[in-house]
Description:
The chain is mainly α. It contains 6 helices and 3 strands, in the order ααβααββαα. It folds into 2 domains: 3-89, Winged helix-like DNA-binding domain superfamily/Winged helix DNA-binding domain (Arc Repressor Mutant, subunit A), CATH 1.10.10; 92-163.
Amino acid sequence: MDNKLQSAQDKFMHGIGHLCDSFGLNKFLAQLYSVLYFNEKPMSLDEIAERLKASKSNVSINIRELEKWGAVKSVWVKGSRKDHYEANLDMKSVVLSKVKSGVKRRLVEVSDMIDEFKESIQSQPPDSTEEEKRVARICAQRLDKIEELKSMLINISKLAENIF
């Protein structure tokens, strides 16, 4: 690859890594995907590790994560016994799939937390003071508002799935 082109690619890869990091996403995963996305041919773990100046084990662990997302896939290369990988070039589907799974996972976590909190509120001992009962009612009312928000997010998520 031309040095100027590789330098531009490195700069972009570095920038995309920092951008993803600022959103709480794994910087190395973004850089790994970027390397495969801009490479016209499948790459072996050794080639990827060399390009990213990373250990082969780190690349291997993270490539498995990208495979789970559907962002990369293993491909057979004639004459080679090594594993080779290429990027899913439909970046829109990769990103939307990851966002959808993240939203669903967090909505399940919120639902579990709400259920657990509600159970605690509802299982107050019979000898609770009036103040404790009042606080429990306030918490239950506020939980209802959180559940309304959760329902709204579920509906938005369903709507987004139909749009994309």
